Amino acid sequence: MYTLFAYPNSYAMTAHAVLEETGAPYEVKWVQIFTDDLDPEFHAISPHGRVPALRHGDTTIFETGAIAYYVAERHPDANLIVEKDEPQRAAFLQWFHYLATTLQTDVMIQFHPEIYFPNDVDTQKRFLQASLGRLSSVMETIEQGLENGPYFCGERRSIVDYLFVMQAVWPEIFPTRAEDYPRIKNLIDMLLARPAVARVYDTHMGEKKSPIKADGTEATGGYGLDAFKD
Length: 230
Ligand SMILES: N[C@@H](CCC(=O)N[C@@H](CS)C(=O)NCC(=O)O)C(=O)O
Hints:
The chain is an alpha+beta fold and 230 residues long. Helix content is 48%, strand content 8%.
């Protein structure tokens, strides 16, 4: 039995979707984030108090990609890991790391510029715009990378697709709209049409809270870009 520590509509959605897709038995423990009063069991696993985190017997693990990989490789029937003897292995490794290091960095800035420049809204606004410029080239790169799709690894669906789509459902991370990237939009639609993914997405939307800021207060009205529109 896995225990997933999650916050609604966060990076935990990816790990949650992979768990659901494998059919593995699991429970979700909803925890608060951005608080001085972190759930002790969760904090013991996740040193920064970030979701997702996972307990599996005596094993604990944090980081979305690591959790997705850990769960998927324990459930080979789900076929979500591209193995080393498969032709798409290099693409799998490339996108797995690209999404975690290059995409996620700027996604996090879009939601939490105040972490970097607390109490300096003007600098936060400039930082958001600069980061959005980087996201624009990241989205172009991904759109181009899906040329031989529909998945990141061609016809081969893998955890990489979940790692992308479960954050691509956030409109804030697109310089314009997901619809402006037809291959990306198609991938989002294909994954959300899967019953396992739809169940997880609906669960998170049902639990959904306003995006939460680093000072613990809930944001209003599209925190992220809208909050900084002129
Ligand atoms: N690199 C981490 C990032 C996780 C992350 O930042 N999660 C956010 C929610 S989407 C969080 O828990 N933030 C709370 C905090 O930074 O204190 C991962 O992919 O697991």
